[in-house]
Amino acid sequence: MTAVINQTMGKQEWLMLFLLSVLWGGSFFFVGIAVAELPPLTIVSLRLVLAALTLWFVMTLMGQRLPKSLSVWKTFLVMGLFNSAIPFSLIVWGQTHIASGLASVLNATTPLFTVIMAGVFLADERMSSRKVVSIVIGFIGVVILIGPSSLDGLGVNVFAQLAVLGAAASYGISGVYGRRFKKMNIPPLATATGQLITSSLVLLPISIVVERPDQLMFPSASVWISVIALAVFSTALAYILYFRLLSSSGITNLSMVTFLIPITAILLGVVVLDEVLMLEHLIGMVFIVVSLLGIDGRLLGKKH
């Protein structure tokens, strides 16, 4: 029996969702710097290993221990593959062939894959016309926000685009699968640490054999800073928030973070880089906010 979640989020959940969008939005920036000097699998391996070590250190400081059950670690392995190793690799490889704007738009299909999979496998997150319409509105908002020109490369470098779509589908699978951790009474910190450890153990040897990072030139300081930030903030801290939200609000609400990521990127550009907030940005944001409230059920006064 699947543990029931609250589909209408409270203030704390909305705050965590927004923070998660900032952390994951920053990953596109950090990856953009790292790919200039490091190959894709090496970047992902460093991201996973450093993030796993960070969370293991945090658990040690807090006096917490990882589960010892073999069945739990098998669950960590499946989650690590579909939530980290596979999508991270596909997105980073895709970003080496297509523009980040198009990658962001394709990544915004994650809620669609999620709603379909959750509707099939989760009794308390059934698909509805309200959710589907809300997702379409949100996707339109992302395109408006990033700019219709972001679709210019659609149909070119098809395999790279399919890779990003594959990553979105993988996130949908992992979200549905990850709901079982609440039933297993495994806390978010342990879940995040366990899945990062298993995904690291899978991907690290593959990257060593395929890309031979030992033969690469030593990366610059800016690349190392980007990789460390990618691991600590966009992965370790992000996954703690991810599993807390997954446990409390469900995967459908959580998947909407991909609609929030472009908003946080635009707002950070305005605040930090003195970029101009355009009318199309505001229109796109309105579409996305309506979409979020529609999925949450708050817009129509529905809590379930």
Mean pLDDT: 83
Distance between the termini: 18 Å
Beta content comes to under 5%
Which H/E pattern describes the elements? HHHHHHHHHHHH
Q: How many beta-strand runs?
A: 0
Largest sheet: none
Low-confidence stretches at least 5 residues in length (pLDDT < 50)? none
Q: How big is the Rg?
A: 19 Å
What are its keywords?
304 residues, 0% strand, single chain
Structure description:
This protein is mainly α and 304 residues long. 75% of the residues lie in helices and 0% in strands. It has helices at 11-34, 40-61, 70-95, 100-107, 110-121, 129-146, 158-178, 180-183, 188-211, 221-255, 257-273, 279-296. Helix 2 crosses helix 10 and helix 6 packs antiparallel against helix 12 (279-296). The longest helix has 35 residues, at 221-255. It is globular and about 45 Å long. The model has no long low-confidence stretch (mean pLDDT 83).
Topology:
Layout: H1 11-34, H2 40-61, H3 70-95, H4 100-107, H5 110-121, H6 129-146, H7 158-178, H8 180-183, H9 188-211, H10 221-255, H11 257-273, H12 279-296
Task: Describe the structure in brief.
With 304 residues, this protein is mainly alpha-helical. Helix content is 75%, strand content 0%.
